[in-house]
């Protein structure tokens, strides 16, 4: 394996400035994330904070044991009881078969940085992955993308979720899911790994009650030996630990909501638009309706009551406080308060996020300060493009610049290469012939117009027909050229599919399954054990 950093122009303005040390952007956060002194200071800053370590460890032990946590995972949960231990945390939704590759990249980041900081600080640093099980948008995770021809195609599991139901509560329809899994494996090439991989996925699926369970069991199979600890934010056991934290969010709703709203407006005025829906009256908490598993986002009304937009439910502040104390499982966080809950539950040394997450964290500083806590250091996760040996060979043989491929694909190079196979290019010849015909045809059009004006229209149409004949022969010649050079054109397409699928980075479309099927999971272990500069935007991994 070879790992090369690469500078690209695929970062947003905000992320590029954050990485480069732009003070105006870094001032939106409490810590400068790319200096080791930051983590020395952060460790000191959280050393005096109190956490319910015993309660948290008990819950994590129960959940991770249920998901098949390895000895290293259970040992790390036990280490969390140590008063000097800290965590590196990041999270994602419970994607099918791990979801897009960027989920794997985020977990690699968390594990890798945990090991690095434990060595540097001489204190236990535990990798924690926060499964956003409380999320209810099943449409976002009910599929994986698989290559089909020149494109990536969505393969949906077929199960529907009609209500705004948390994924943690959504039971797997095993008949649908097992049929879907069989279909997915029918689309991958048979290798020495395929049979065991399919059998493993079948076993994990059959033993899973929910899609969160299925996700968690696969992740622990991949990363359990690295001591990764999982937490499901939608689990009732976790919610019971969050009661006092919900109270703090209820009491400070105005400061949280107003502060975040103002920061969003400030960012937009500065040219950093944030895709975050946050209004001054947002409660940033969900309530789970009685007799239903549907979640309703709460808003603070003018009369100081809390209600859903459609008045699905309504509470006084006193009633909502009572719910937080007695039934915290009926509440859950949204995108603004989830980071606060992570910070209040865990002794967090650093948080890892994707580009979109880092962007919306840039407006959350007032929310943290409203609860009189600091935002942890925020690090952009590692971003990889995996290159197999065949793709590497094609890229080299076609002299394709890898940076350009990642930024815009290979369609322009493919078109130019095909045109170069005819000398002069057919398109140029066709244009020259059209100009010659137009010049030769001009006296005829003038004569027609001179005889009778309506004949000019007939002459013009005649010229159009001649042009169409040229277009026809140009198309036929190009089609023949494509047939003659089909192998090379298919190579261009395969590079595009691998490195620039659906017009973007590989990590956003590809699932890990085809890569593990071909290469086993050792390449993942090698990545977690490698050294990285986290200020670098992207890495090319040659397998």
Report on the structure:
39% of the residues are buried. The longest helix has 32 residues, at 453-484. The strands form four sheets. A five-stranded parallel sheet has the order 6-3-2-12-13. The mean pLDDT is 94. The protein contains 24 helices and 15 strands. It is of the alpha/beta class and 543 residues long. The N and C termini lie close together (5 Å). 52% of the residues lie in helices and 14% in strands. It holds the Pfam family CC_BshC. It comes from Sediminibacillus dalangtanensis. Involved in bacillithiol (BSH) biosynthesis. May catalyze the last step of the pathway, the addition of cysteine to glucosamine malate (GlcN-Mal) to generate BSH. Residues 384-543 form the Bacillithiol biosynthesis BshC C-terminal coiled-coil domain. Belongs to the BshC family.
Helix content: 40-55%
Low-confidence stretches: none
Q: What's the end-to-end separation, in Å? A: 5 Å
Number of strands: 15
Task: Please give the radius of gyration in angstroms.
Answer: 29 Å
Sheet-strand content, in percent, reads 5-15%
Major sheet details: 5 strands, parallel
Number of helices: 24
What do the pLDDT scores average to? Answer: 94
What kind of oligomer do you see? single chain
- By secondary-structure content and strand pairing, the structural class works out as alpha/beta
Global shape: globular
Q: Reading side by side through the largest sheet, how are the strands ordered?
A: 6-3-2-12-13
Function: Involved in bacillithiol (BSH) biosynthesis. May catalyze the last step of the pathway, the addition of cysteine to glucosamine malate (GlcN-Mal) to generate BSH.
Family: Belongs to the BshC family.
Keywords: Ligase
Protein name: Putative cysteine ligase BshC
